[in-house]
Amino acid sequence: MKNKCFTLYPAIDIKDGKCVRLLFGEMEKETVYNNNPLDQAMWFIDQGAEWLHIVDLDGAVTGKNVNKRVILKILNKLQENVKIQIGGGIRNIDDINFWIENSANRIILGTLALENPTFINQLDKKYFKKIIIGADVRNGKIASHGWKKQSDVIAVELINSLNSSIVSSVIYTDISKDGSLQGVSLDQTLSFAKQIQYPVIASGGVSSLNDISRLAKKFSNGIQGVIIGRALYDKKFAFVDALKICKEVKI
Ligand code: AMZ
Question: How is the chain split among helix, strand and coil, in percent rounded to 5?
Fold first, then answer.
């Protein structure tokens, strides 16, 4: 089933308890934007955000939920005000259940989907709509473990091997663009979306309102949302204007 409207997901990437942006996902190339991710989350909600995209970057690298406390704080305080998807270091059923029990709306799985697609395919159907796959892609192939490991697995093939009664959508991140404000990879994202049966959330490189508009126009081709990080933090445009473009999409 398709989502009803094109959705804007402001990104809150957490490293060492702080809200950062990385360049091309490299942990060494960080800019700290807010020492308090909860404040950042509240700011996005004040601006009208309906969703938050939260990633535990240390978690993605280590495979453990390193920034659990601060993410829990956001969930406890804001779950009534916003929907939240969480990823980074979620690698087993206990982690998944923990976040669902703490009111996360969606769980993002990247490394686990690559290393153990059977695990995903055997999940109980009660997880449908809760699980989304993070396809972090370099040259069409999946990267994992905080993007420190590069596989030879073709992203489209991995996604098409997954059970469609478990997976509800897929985040397509172009690593070569992430955090760089270079503009989105529209052609690659579109080609990816056309080859899979799930709605795609585009991620990486958004730098202008025009980028958002170009993606949003492909709603009927399966691109149904966008994750925006650095452009929002650097105030390349106003959050409300970005939101307006998303809401204007004709379905
Ligand atoms: O920027 C990075 N180095 C990075 C990042 N943003 N590494 C992983 N991630 C995100 C993925 C996905 O949302 O885009 O973490 C999630 C996947 O984590 P895991 O632990 O399931 O592979």
Answer: 35, 30, 35
- Going by CA atoms, what residue is nearest to atom 15 of ligand 1? 88
| Residue 16 among the catalytic residues | no
Looking at residue 54, its amino acid is I
**Predicted local confidence at residue 3, as pLDDT:** 52
Residues with CB under 6 A from ligand 1: 13, 22, 25, 55, 57, 60, 87-90, 108-112, 134, 136, 144, 146-147, 173
Residue 67 CA to residue 145 CA, distance in Å, equals 16
Q: What local confidence, expressed as pLDDT, does residue 250 receive?
A: 65
Superfamily of domain 7-248: Aldolase class I (3.20.20.70)
**pLDDT band for position 1 (50/70/90)?**
very low
**Per-domain boundaries in the chain:** 7-248
88 Cα: distance to centroid of ligand 1 (angstroms) = 5
pLDDT value at residue 230: 95
The question of whether 136 is a catalytic residue gets the answer yes
Query: What are the residue ranges of helices labelled H in 89-175?
Result: 93-101, 111-115, 117-121, 155-160
DSSP-assigned beta bridge partners for residue 133: 109, 170
Amino acid at 195: Q
Phi first, then psi, for residue 35 (nearest 5°) are -75, -15
Per-residue confidence band for 249, with pLDDT thresholds at 50, 70 and 90 = confident
- Please state the rounded mean pLDDT for residues 62-76: 97
Q: What is the pTM of this model?
A: 0.97
